[in-house]
Amino acid sequence: MRKTLIGHSISSIADSSKILTYMGLIYATLGEHETAVEKFIEATGLDNYLAVTYFQGGVFNFLLARYDLAYKNFDEALLYLRGNPVSYVFLCPILF
C-alpha cells in the first residue's frame, strides 16, 4: 500500500507544470535552449495560465531565432497575466 502511495505521489510531482518550468530553466542555464523550450511547452500543456512559462518560452525561442514563436509566447504571457501586475518577489527563481 505504502509503495503505491509513494509511486502515485512521485508521478503527480513529475507531471507538475512548475516542476517542468524549473526543468526548462535548468536546461536553459546549461545552454540547452531547445530542450528548455520543450519543457516550457510541456508545462503550459498542463497549466495554460502559467504566464511566466510563456514568457520564458518567448525568451528562448527568441535566442533560437524563432521570432514568430517568440512573439506568440510573449503575447500569450501578456494574455494570461490577465491585467495583473508582475510580482517581482517571485522573480528570484527565474533570475537566480
Account of the protein in words:
The chain has 6 helices and no strands. The model has no long low-confidence stretch (mean pLDDT 81). Helix 2 runs antiparallel to helix 3 (33-46), helix 3 runs antiparallel to helix 4 and helix 4 runs antiparallel to helix 5. The chain is globular. It is mainly α. It has a single domain (16-95), classed as Tetratricopeptide repeat domain (Serine Threonine Protein Phosphatase 5, Tetratricopeptide repeat, Alpha Horseshoe). The longest helix is centred in the C-terminal third of the chain and has 15 residues, at 67-81.
Q: How many separate domains make up the residues?
A: 1
Dominant shape:
globular
Distance between the termini: 39 Å
Report the CATH topology name: Serine Threonine Protein Phosphatase 5, Tetratricopeptide repeat
- The residue fraction in helices comes out at over 70%
The CATH superfamily appears as Tetratricopeptide repeat domain
Number of helices: 6
Query: Which class best fits the helix and strand makeup?
Result: mainly alpha
Which radius of gyration do the C-alpha atoms yield?
15 Å
User: Secondary-structure element sequence?
Assistant: HHHHHH
List keywords for this structure.
Serine Threonine Protein Phosphatase 5, Tetratricopeptide repeat, globular, 96 residues, 0% strand, single chain, mainly alpha, 75% helix
How do the helices and strands line up, and which of them pair or pack?
Layout: H1 2-14, H2 17-29, H3 33-46, H4 51-63, H5 67-81, H6 92-95
